[in-house]
Amino acid sequence: MSVYLGGLEKNGAAMVINTFLVEDRADIRDTLIQAMQEVAPCRFVGHADSESTARQWLHTHTHDQDWQLAIVDLFLADGSGFGVLRHCQQRRPEQKVVVLTGYSHENIVSKCLELGADEVFDKTGELEELVAYCKAHAASLALEAAPPAAWAVQPFGSVRH
């Protein structure tokens, strides 16, 4: 059974987060989407292969229900992930943006964080860390979506003090 909670879907015990992917190589994009949907609580709701397409999608999908995570590659055939990061600087706090790149040199990581990336992951060796990040983000969103404890159903006849 699935329950919809404002852009999040609770499917069993795990929350599924709406994810947007910016990756220009179709083979990497397709493999990443398939793998992440199998091992991480991600449902891919859109993708872009260029900076301009990513910016357009993000501009028309501004609500937190539209996406809770964007995964951005830095070096695109048309434009760059740096421009996507700049565009995401005005996002809502619950919307996270991570960079997944093959170029995780210290100066690149610093620039990404300066532009507002929440995390930077290396494509060649940090996919498990990306999955762990997605799980942690989904868990934090699930806590935010949970009703307050005061709404808990009390047994008939019990009195709360």
Report on the architecture of this protein.
The protein is α/β, with parallel strands linked by helices and 161 residues long. Helices cover 37% and strands 24% of the residues. It is built from 5 helices and 7 strands; from the N terminus they run E-E-E-H-E-H-E-H-E-H-E-H. Strands 1, 2, 3, 4, 5, 6 and 7 form a 7-stranded mixed sheet that branches. The longest helix has 19 residues. The radius of gyration is 18 Å and the shape is globular. The N terminus is likely disordered.
Give the key terms:
seven-stranded mixed sheet; alpha/beta; disordered N terminus; globular; 5 helices; 161 residues; 7 strands
Oligomer: single chain
Q: Strand count, sense and closure of the main sheet?
A: 7 strands, mixed
Helical run tally: 5
| SS class | alpha/beta
Mean pLDDT: 86
Taken in chain order, the helices and strands follow as EEEHEHEHEHEH
Principal-axis shape equals globular
Radius of gyration: 18 Å
Distance between the termini: 35 Å
Beta-strand residue fraction: 15-25%
What are the segments in which pLDDT stays under 50 over at least 5 consecutive residues? 1-13
Residues in helices, as a percent range: 25-40%
The total count of strands amounts to 7
